[in-house]
Amino acid sequence: MDWEQIVPKSELNYIMGNPPFVGHQWRTEKQQEDLEIAFYDLNKHGKLDYVCGWYNKAVDYISDTNIEVAFVSTNSICQGESVGILWKHLFDKGIFIHFAYRTFIWNSDALDKAHVHCVIVGFSKKNPLKKYLFSQNKREQVKNINGYLIEADNVFIEARGKSINKNVPKMSKGSQPTDGGYLLLSEDEFKTLLQTESKEIVDCIHPFMMGEDFIKGKNRYCFWFKDISPSIFSKSLFVKERLEKIAELRKKSPTKSVQEQADTPYLFTQIRQPNTDYLAIPRVSSERRKYIPMGFLSKNIIAGDKLQYIASDSKWLFGILISSVHNAWMRIVAGRLKSDYSYSPAVYNNFVIPELTDQQKEQISKTAQAILDARALYPDSSLADLYDPLTMPPELLKAHKANDKAVLALYGFKPDATEEEIVSRLMQMYAEKAS
Question: Which residues are within 8 A (CB) of 248 and not within 5 positions of it... i.e. 6 or more apart?
């Protein structure tokens, strides 16, 4: 619909609204058609939430006017990939953000009490003298508000194949089975096979972890037949029955590359297992946690595709990545799965790590080791237990605070620096390094 048919823009000073909140993965076919109309001038709108269509229509409507617009929206429009797609497009069309109310929970009066994480963004085609950022009960006048709703230049974090930093190890996601669960084993199934299968077969069973397994301490296993002679597993009736089911499942896949791997049902479809022990980072983590739990795992543990890894035993790198500095960056740059953090290699690859001396690396290694030592005091507790804000042990909390203080000092931040100050400076560092 042409909004001028509803009211001529010459008769308006303000547009205020609360457009529908529908994530891109839940759009109907009709809503997809709506967005194709609204984003006639942007091909890469496929991953944008439905609410973004209102932004583009509003920007077109207010051209050559001083009309000011403010929309309540899901906070996903200011996080992850959406920023580089939506806000770069809108800024290129000449808009300025006047004010923004950062993420807050919209508490509904409805019976189901659905909690939606929202932002409010005000913008127009004129560049105001005063711009304001709001969070809770605080208002702050700023020079510029970018698409991440941070006081910083209009920086857009790009997806890149390797880290922006020199001499740091690569982050990869784990191996993907695409097996219908037939290469995987529960703990009970594993215990049964210990009694019923040959030692050669049992030796091909490895611990297996997705992100949730890693955080919650779940024990799962998988068949890992990479570089194993078929003569070893072809004699097992249990294995052959499972391989037949995998082959049939892959043949029916709509994905051609998966269909082609029906001929090798004994292998994961994507194999990325490191040959060394590694630092594991779950792809999804609860937004309730101050720190994304991460830690070192043995090369014998197969990392699934919901677990990312860095093939390194570097304690100083672990200390930086688990610090409040990196987690502040992650909260802005990462995407979301519902309200949970969705960590991707783009978070790591675009995070600026300063050049460190050997002495600085040694210092951070010590504070990082103190975190691992504090965890070890509670061997029966999962990372979910240890990093729940209501149950985090005092020794672990103390170790994290000491590590945070050391990492803040590396970047030149004061011990009481706010997340907004941290991210604003990190974005400036990113812009300088990316250029």
Answer: 262
pLDDT digit string (tens) for 271-329? Answer: 999 999 999 999 999 988 999 999 999 999 999 999 999 999 999 999 999 999 999 99
Q: What is the pLDDT of residue 111?
A: 55
pTM: 0.86
Nearest-5° angle of CA 182, CA 198, CA 224?
Answer: 40
Residue 46, C-beta contacts closer than 8 angstroms, at least 6 positions apart: 24
CA 386/CA 238 separation, integer angstroms: 38
Nearest CA-CA partner of 86 in 141, 45, 118, 51: 45
Q: How far is CA 372 from the centre of its chain?
A: 23
pLDDT, tens digit (0-9, with 9 covering 90-100), for 372-399: 999 999 999 999 999 999 999 999 999 9
Residue 146 CB burial class (10 angstroms; 0-12, 13-18, ≥19):
buried
Q: Which two tokens stand for residue 22?
A: 């529908």
The span from the CA of 101 to the CA of 138, in Å, is 10
Q: Give the largest CA-CA distance in the chain.
A: 82
Higher pLDDT, 237 or 344: 237
Which of 385, 381, 360, 293 is CA-nearest to residue 330? 293
| 3-class secondary structure, 336 | strand
Report H helices in 19-158.
29-38, 52-61, 81-82, 88-92
Q: Residue 69's beta-bridge partner residues?
A: 15, 123
Cα torsion angle, 429, 430, 434, 435, sign: negative
pLDDT classification of 401: cutoffs 50, 70, 90: very high
Query: How far, in Å, CA of 281 to CA of 173, rounded?
Result: 9
Q: What is the pLDDT of residues 3-23, one digit of tens each?
A: 999 999 999 999 999 888 776
* Sheet containing 171-173: order of strands: 171-173, 307-310, 278-282, 295-297
